[in-house]
Amino acid sequence: MSDSSSAIQSVLVENRVFPPPEALVKAARISGMAGYEALCAEANKDFEGFWARLARENINWTKPFTQTLDESNAPFYKWFADGELNASANCLDKHMGTPVENKTAIIFEADGGEVTKVTYKELLARVSQFANALKARGVQKGDRVLIYMPMTIEGIVAMQACARIGATHSVVFGGFSAKAVQERIQDAGAVAVITANYQLRGGKELPLKAIVDEAIASGGCECVKTVFVYERTASAWARVAGRDISFAEAVAGQSTECAPVPVEAEHPLFVLYTSGSTGKPKGVQHATGGYMLWAKLTMDWTFDIQPSDVFWCTADIGWVTGHTYITYGPLAAGATEVVFEGVPTYPNAGRFWQMIERHKVSIFYTAPTAIRSLIKAADSDEAVHPGKSDLSSLRILGSVGEPINPEAWMWYYKNVGQERCPIVDTWWQTENGGHLITPLPGATPLVPGSCTLPLPGIDAAIVDETGNDVPNGSGGILVIKRPWPSMIRTIWGDPERFKKSYFPEELKGYYLAGDGAVRDAKTGYFRITGRIDDVLNVSGHRMGTMEIESALVAKSDLVAEAAVVGRPDDLTGEAICAFVVLKRPRPTGDEAKQIAKELRDWVAKEIGPIAKPKDIRFGDNLPKTRSGKIMRRLLRSLAKGESITQDTSTLENPAILDQLAQNN
Ligand code: WTA
User: So where does ATP get bound (predicted)?
Assistant: First the structure.
């Protein structure tokens, strides 16, 4: 049995159940399954009334809404549409005059270990001052601002400042290339870029500003009028006169007060690019009202956040998890949160555990990929084992971004949570805004490898290709049958693609998640089996196979054709495997190695290092049907090292399979 099928097998026979700790059941907001079911029943009975109640209780509206859900132009749903609010005011201003104002909002730990703390009051002043700096450079409500920042307090300030003046931010992960930055500037029509001279990761200083310069110099970015540069390090950076301004210069003389601009509930708070199954990345557009409701609500429901908690989400603000569970959710909840600049393995692989001890973290939210790599590190070096740190402050653990295999789940539960802390395995997507299917820490009995049950009001189901429900126990397509407040509103500038990608006609108007899933025959618990489209999940990062293929063929002096598939990987979940036909004879030996390296570096330049293929195999051609279609399912088997048992009778060139089965 291959590794992946044994892993699947072990989930199928998974019968360990971990009930929530008694004390948590008593104290949690949603107490026991009865508490969960009561909320579900309320949502069932009066769907709109349920959301209206929560939106009134959790959001400060400058103008109250009168209409909850507008389905008149489905699937372009609108929520709370005639209401007005400001997202930043819902994170900061609302705490002023309460005991939270002098509470620590952010504990920032730098790559090198220095710790800086800011209170809510101080954060409000910094956000307001930077918001004034944006305005001074002409940025206003409705403008788009691209943010390309390291994990710093300033990164959060930049996002919050945009929200404060009604500008729509689009954060690009600091690991993406100049080309990716250029495409996103163009697609969003950004009027300003907020970046840093350098970022610090794992003791290394890596450029950011120079990449922005390269992106803008590549053309088509005339929309950018200002580049704000946070000087993270003392290193010099090249200045384009009239366009570039440092943070210090930009805020000099600016007031630390800035009235938040009320925006309509549907006003785009942000556009975040993510990979789809076809073509270029999609700009997922989120609305202000519904999204902010979700950020706040899921902090309460999923994390049961309490005033004394220290919350730590290890994601980057460049991903949706960082948006919802670093920049908006924890602040909307008035929590103290840890923000970490560096990487989990520097200066050693015990960094996470040491930081939990140092900052007395009580809720820790990370990705399976990080857990798997830290298991490996702890296995080979006792000194970085979580058992070496005092983790007694922890009360809830979380997982996000990819399926967590039961083995990793058990290790996390035992060694980090010390069998005391529930693990909330949160399933959701960039398009969802926040958690949709997840255990609740004071209610749901846990099963390793299962994200358990949908949140109240979320109508998740598993259907077949025609949109009909499949019985529990059989796998199918994961859909959400009814809209929810924090759902994607559209793809920026491409409403047709939005409709086609997420609401295909054959699925009866349901939201298509793009994941496969199965519900347990007895409990109805959901288990996600992975993407059913051409999207890969590598270390929790979403990547389109087509995107990587186009990057490869863009090296047109060398590459004639390329096909990219994923294969299971113990550490990264999936690994990228590229099959390449060159414009020269098929290379072997050292030449193949050298060209493979060249192609990997090329992909890193085109997209970013996270998109580098792990395997590159060269062939004289690719397995195609007689009508010229590449047979990807065969390539997937080859990538896994399986022998081909599928029907190959429609294959034009069966001999190619032997050649491609060989690794260079
Ligand atoms: C996967 C990240 C299993 C899934 C928040 C989804 C998961 C994609 C889980 C979205 C989970 C996320 N269990 N799979 N708990 N969480 N996924 O947009 O395939 O970066 O479609 O959002 O990650 O990735 P995205």
Answer: 401-403, 425-430, 515, 531, 542
Q: What is the CA radius of gyration of the chain?
A: 24
Q: Which atom of ligand 1 is nearest to the CA of 404?
A: 13
Across all residues in the chain, what is the average pLDDT?
95
Q: Which atom of ligand 1 is nearest to the CA of 319?
A: 20
Among the listed residues 220, 248, 230, 151, the one whose alpha carbon sits nearest the alpha carbon of residue 193: 230
- Positions of E strands within 583-645: 615-618
CB 592 within 8 A of CB 622: no
Rounded Cα gap, residues 511 and 501, in angstroms = 9
pTM metric for this prediction: 0.94
Whether 142 and 188 have beta carbons less than 8 Å apart is answered as no
Dist CA 401 CA 661 (whole Å):
31
Alpha-carbon distance 292 to 161, whole Å? 15
How far apart are alpha carbons 541 and 386 in whole angstroms? Answer: 25
**Nearest CA, atom 3, ligand 1:** 403
Tens digit of each residue's pLDDT (9 = 90 or more) over 107-163: 999 999 999 999 999 999 999 999 999 999 999 999 999 999 999 999 999 999 999
Three-state SS at 514: strand
d(CA 293, CA 50): 13
User: What's the CA-to-centroid distance between 143 and ligand 1, angstroms?
Assistant: 29
The ligand 1 atom at the shortest distance from the C-alpha of residue 531 is 19
Cα 489–chain centre separation: 17
Q: Which of 428, 435, 455 to mutate to test the pocket of ligand 1 (most atoms within 8 A of CB)?
A: 428
Closest to 534 (Cα-Cα) out of 543, 521, 526:
543
Is the minimum distance from the CB of 515 to ligand 1 under 6 angstroms? Answer: yes
Convert the pLDDT of each residue in 368-406 to its tens digit: 999 999 999 999 999 999 999 999 999 999 999 999 999
316 touches ligand 1 (CB under 6 Å): no
Buried b (16+ CB within 10 A) or exposed e, 169-184: bbbbbbbbbbbbbbbb
Contact by Cβ (8 Å): 454, 432: no
527 close to ligand 1 (CB < 6 Angstrom) = no
Q: Give pLDDT, residue 1.
A: 33
Each residue's pLDDT tens digit, 327-375: 999 999 999 999 999 999 999 999 999 999 999 999 999 999 999 999 9
Beta carbon of 400 within 6 Å of any ligand 1 atom: yes
Whole-number pLDDT of residue 282 = 95
Nearest CA to ligand 1 atom 4: 402
3-state DSSP assignment of residue 85: strand
Q: Cα(183) to centroid of ligand 1, in Å?
A: 24
Instruction: Decide: 402 in ligand 1 pocket, CB within 6 A.
Output: yes
Residues contributing to the annotated binding site for CoA? 201-204, 321, 539
How many CB atoms are closer than 10 A to CB 446?
Answer: 21
Longest dimension (CA), the chain: 74
Complex confidence, ipTM: 1.00
Buried b / exposed e over 628-646, threshold 16 CB at 10 Å, is eebbbebbebbbbeeebee
Q: Report the atom number in ligand 1 closest to the C-alpha of 530.
A: 19
